[in-house]
Protein 1
Amino acid sequence: MRALKRLDPILIQAVIAAALSFAHIHDIAVAAGQDGWKAWAYPVSVDLLLVVAWKRLRKLRDGAGWFWFLVAMAASLGANVATSGVMDLAHPPVWLRLTVAGWPAVAFLGGTLLVHGSKSTVEEPREAHAQSPQGAVSEPPARPAEEEVKEPVKEPQGPVLVSYADAGEALGVDAATVRGWAFNEHVKKYPGPTANTVRVDLAECKTYQSRRLVGA
């Protein structure tokens, strides 16, 4: 009982109306000389064309969607009216037989155009906007190339020039030892502030001392 209360009354009404319309189209097909499974296929084709046209109108309200929607609606409504007693179904007119006999081709054509023609129809306005007044397709402007972030180049540091005494004090050796390194050309000598003074590179002295300790 709770499940029945949850049913939407509008949905129930739609199901009843669809069933009645389905039966009316079947009766018209039988009266026009169609029997067996063919009589049941007619209402299916009418309802499917109506659904496809409605889906087309929800996405794109164009003339094709409205045309085939009205065609399917006319077929369904016409069958409902014809079964109301205004037509002698025991002796149907010739035009009704011809209409029922030609309906499958009409339904096939309408469904094919609605399904396979929707993509091209939707894309045509987009292509029109993409073209220039002369008809040439305008390409979107190219984005400027991103500038590469270059890391600052570190300039090599110059030598730290000190006297023999300062180098010996920093390395824990005598000044004479540093002088011997320079005299034997183990480290490079640099001119000092005066003509009689000599300077050496402190880093070079540290490197040479490290090599001597490892060699020892």
Protein 2
Amino acid sequence: MGRPEKPVDPAIPELALLATFLREERAKANKGYAVLAPCTDLSEATLKRAATGKDLPTWRTVGQYLHACHVLGPQPVRVRIVGETFYAHYSSSSNFREALLHAAHLWTEARTAVEDAAKPPRRPLPTCRFVYDQADLSARLRELHEWAGSPSAHVMEKSAGDFGVLPHSTAHRIIKGQTIPGHVLQLEGFLRACGLSERKWAAWTAAWWQVKDILLVHTVGEKMHLIFESLAKVPDEKNDLAA
């Protein structure tokens, strides 16, 4: 069987499980790669690499690897694969199909893990702590939009929930920092469109209410200031009329 193989690379556990299974099947067959290769249209190097756990082998490679392990008799047997359908030769062992089905499960899990590992790491979830005014909340909402992958305003409108909850024009103004959601349902629609879990909405809702209360106080203060100014002008107007 040649020299002992190097340990399976555990960088991606799902890949390691697939590689370990392939090695176990080869060990059961007690065949070296020099014996396996002629039973396939692959090289010894390709078969060895499939069992290292470093890279994801093609499904075709996995299928031929296992078939070579289960071939009966001294004569090499060629096999063919169309798409993901494996056409096994009649001379393979009775438990070949069982091994192939298990390998298919392991290979699918490994492929998913490899694809996930290739994705760029997601940015940390923005927090709405220390939000004191509209500018703070606007900045946090824009950070949340970037965290979500910067979906377009039209996509956000469709993802926000019920029709009209978050019009794309409003979503556009929010992500441009020109406004904040006008009501709670609109805020929730924005959070939903960003893919934020509902269990994390409470903090954002509290921040929104805080900002709205501050805006209300400012609005009332401005109106009271105008009222006081108007009242202060009344005596002067009477004096002007008397003169």
Protein 3
Amino acid sequence: MPTPSRRSHARILTLLALVTVLLAGAFTPTAHAASPVYSGPGWKALTKDSIYSLSPDPYTVVFANTTARTRLAKYFKTPAIQVTRTVGVPITVTSTIDTTPAGTCPTYHRIVVHYTHQPLGQRGMSSAWPCYRISDGSAWGGHLYMDSEYWEQPAWFSTNRTVNEAWRRDISTHELGHMLGLDHPNTDVDRDGKVEAQECVRGAGGLKPIMCSPNRGLKVPTGPTGTRVPVAYNAMTAGSFTKAFDLPGLRQMLANYRLRQN
């Protein structure tokens, strides 16, 4: 039986100070330790929600209603394909409507996506409610609540349409990462004794893990008109898990599943 985890707030955005393995050779596995590992450079397992591993069994993305499907389906296709091909865990974005009520875990390995106005009662906040499998601590699936404000207000993130869309894709992938068992990997980079918002390791080109909190670890400066507009150097990789951090984390989570069986 699955158990609902306590909710995992993914990120605070604008106006707030916050995928059976494919054919052999489809992805290149990384070397793993002989024992489970729950954190590494730029990634961290969602152990606080009792998730320690990622099952190799297929996952499906389904939708709470037709509005959620119409609005959000495309945002989960890129990361679903990426995880399927490079991690070896099949994720399929379906057209299925699933009305499993909030607070109840859905069918095994279903991720139910909701399109909800301020799901936490606060502006700009989406949330993930992952469930875990009691027998092995693996990611079960659960409910993913996207704040509809990102689409209700066309320029929620930026007046630049490309930048605005990049942020929608990033937040969707970030939330999916939580459902697969990834936590925020913020760490004390500057060694001042505090783990702070946006404080995460950097990869090539300065790109931080997509799971970095908040806003992928990007600054949200105050614009000339007082409007807070995120800087989007993520536009070219929008909606993708990073090769340096998030994907190795997911591969280790998959390795953990097998290691924990032993």
